[in-house]
Amino acid sequence: MSTAPTRVYAARLVGLPIFDPQGDQVGKVRDLVVTIRNDVSQPRVLGLVAEVFGRRRIFVPMTRVTNIDSGQVYTTGLLNMRRFEQRSTETLVIGQMLDRRVTVRTSGGSVDGTVYDVGMEQARNRDWVISRVAVQEPGKGLRRRGQTHTVEWRDVAGLARSEEEQGATHLAAALNEMRPADAANMLHDLPLDRRAAVAAALDDERLADVLEEMPEVDQVAILENLDSERAADVLEEMSPDDAADLMADLPPETQEILLHLMEPDEAEDVRRLMAYVEDTAGAMMTSEPVILGPDATIADALAHVRNPDLTPSLAALVYVCRQPLETPTGKLLGVAHIQRLLREPPSTLVAGALDTSFEVLRPEASKDEVAAHLAMYNLVAAPVVDEAGHLLGAVTVDDLLDHLLPDNWRDRAVRRGEEAGRG
């Protein structure tokens, strides 16, 4: 190991890029793997859990890590591409050690707290070990947060034992800092009981964002672990098309319970999408594209597409309709492309920038027909209308890909010819 820092903290490693000797990025750090023997011996850091191309997680032994600095990790470049599988003697620092309740021994007695980070460094034999533990005490009185301490490993008791009711506050905070897709991957790899605790600790909006990026089997498992009212709240925060897809995987009686608990407007959108045949334009469309009336200005349109919650494909088109402006809308008058809007004076009406020569999709169009439509007209989104010309929703290219790819595409390995085992 060359020119490594004296101490590295685990939470700061998560998300750092991993490079090979040629300077090419080969992955990102997602967790650390340690072995904990007891409360006396410092845990040995066995390696990193790295996410590589295709969202695959692999194990990178610390013997393959050549350098760690403030913003990146370097390896020898010789990586085993076999999917990481945790062994019974191993502990994930981020996934399992954070939020563990411990006791810190002090000169005046002891204090209880929860772990929110750990520091590792190289021992004399060149092995990496956990040497420091960052602990937060419970809040007292009117204080929202308790005091924090960073102490030597030997002064902490309780890290070697697992907990049946381990909290998830600090791990949830770490997931909040990640992109939804990255947080979904980490949540997927947690043990089932830990996954449920972390899902319970995330707020409704964040959990909804993460669920949208998870395989269907994980979505169902997490939702079924929530009480019905919380599950309904999370479904309300999901985009209607994703919520409808998830609902379709639940038993009919569960569907009705959740739809009854949802806000009527939100439930109606989901019911409408669930009524369409699977893998048709109606089933894959979103019912919440950017919709404006003909009296809206270019400035109004640009303000709407600036919404950071919109995907790039949804922000690419503005749909101009007669009243009502909630799907199903009044008659669709035309669409305005974001590129055209950027070239027009902000005070002019968006109706003057409409593309009226566009082709529309019917809700019964198959996914192959939708794909051909988007490809033929070089579109990233297209309107779906009924026979009377009312806008029902919009199909985006990311919606289409979700339906074109295999059901388990998030779990599938992209690389072939993996090496057998890890040493």
Structure, explained:
The protein is an alpha+beta fold. It folds into four domains: 8-84, SH3 type barrels; 96-157, SH3 type barrels (Roll), CATH 2.30.30; 171-275, Alpha Horseshoe (MgtE N-terminal fold); 291-404, CBS-domain, CATH 3.10.580.10. 31% of the residues lie in helices and 24% in strands. The chain contains 16 helices and 18 strands. The strands form four sheets. Strands 2, 3, 4, 5, 6, 7 and 8 form a seven-stranded mixed sheet that branches. Strands 1, 9, 10, 11, 12 and 13 form a six-stranded antiparallel sheet that branches. A hairpin with a 2-residue loop joins strand 9 and strand 10 (109-122). The protein is elongated. Residues 354-412 form the CBS domain. It comes from Nocardioides nanhaiensis. Pfam families: CBS, MgtE_N, PRC, SH3_actinomycetes. This is CBS domain-containing protein.
